[in-house]
Task: structure prediction
Amino acid sequence: MLRLINAVAWIAIIVTAQSTPQPYLRTPSSRQLAWHQLEYYAFVHFGPNTFTNEEWGRSQSTPDVFNPTALDTDQWAKSFADAGMAGMILTAKHHDGMALWDTNTTTYKIGDGKWAKDRIAAGLSADVVRMAAASALKYDINFGIYLSPWDIHRDPAMPKPNLTGTLYDEPQIFGDNTTGDYNDLYARQLTELVTLQYDNGSRISLFELWLDGASGSDTVQTFDWAKFRDIIRENQPGAVMWGHQGVDARWVGNEDGYTVPTNWHTISRTQDQTHYEGDKLQTGVRDGLYWTPAESDARIRDGWFWHANEKPKSVNALMQMYMECVGRSVNLLLDVPPDTTGQIPEEDLETLLQFREQRDAFLKRPLLTPDLDVSASSVREGDSKQYGPANVLDGRTETYWAMNDNETTGVLEIRLDGTYSIDAVIMQEQIALGQRVGGYLIDAGVDGAYRTIVNGTSLGYKRIWILNSSVEANSLRLQILQSNATPLISSVQALGVKQ
Ligand code: FUL
Result:
């Protein structure tokens, strides 16, 4: 009897073990999985450069230079929320080294300037980082922080005659050959930022820390990325650390809001290793050693900081950026800089809102509904309730169509409830269990006669395929031609209009 019970228990274990697909190689952490879903959010470059009309200020101005005439961080957060952006990342310290928060690590902070002193005297806050975080919370968007590792203010190779002999003439500790420890200063700044509090005393929650890889001087500074990561992990376990090559998210290799169609979420190098060329950062490395998905930092204007002579890009240019980033599984971090008033200019906001309208009008035309007839060449263990092809239409990313482990190619067919004119297809792979698919076709059918409309390689978190011209179809077919493990497809959608 005991034997029989054991046997039954074993069968149960084997069946369970087979039924759930095992993770394939690298998979996203929970913080990365949540981050993928944010897709599109704002970058806010604001600081002394806004007032000196520079991009890379030389740390030559005193904090008095920071003088917004009508700062309104609520206006930033509301603008971004209205524009359908999932969050904002603020430059707490850009390369010039001036801190926008009330730090104990340097005298070179806006808090030492006239604007801040006047506000404090009037009983108002002058900590722009905390103000922006509170506004993000108020308008229910995520908040993140940029903290420049390169610090001109501390870099001996960057002369600062205007600050010589002033309160802001601080030790030149940036670089491996200086007597001070810049990593320690940076770690202290990071620690302050990841432990900031809202007015009610609770910790400000961060979704991303942006540790820029740029440097414009010959000074060699070896950064202690592992230490920075640990500080972030300990204090903000839900936050993604962005760096040139990780640890949690990578640069896409350009600053133009663009990436190539093939995109892998993994790479095989860390921040401490030789940097990949831009091309490699775009594609990533298939089956790479680390889950380090790409983020594309791009600009609504030409500069990162606001300049009076620049204009926002067109709505069409932003649409293209979106489709070539978010539509290729890469998050889009779009810089929208406040002007010298301390607000997002009206014309930029107008552009963002029109862009949202155009985007929504395009994306909100789904043709595939859960009730459609859908079939597949194979279903994992015949369990069509759990792994059936209907899962790609149910609007939930947790469910997916799966085949047996030994099957890496297969076909899924969806019969529409009429004839439609289709101009785009959107697909998602179940990345929680790894990135697997390496080749697929999407075919449009009219009464069973198919023609290929998409020929894709990588799939990943989300692909939006816009067709060159719309096609007529009363059925759609997805052919998985290549996958390094059995493919797991969580969503298929087609956009268009009824004929
Ligand atoms: C670059 C910086 O040098 C730019 O000024 C800007 O902050 C951009 C987002 O990253 O590396």
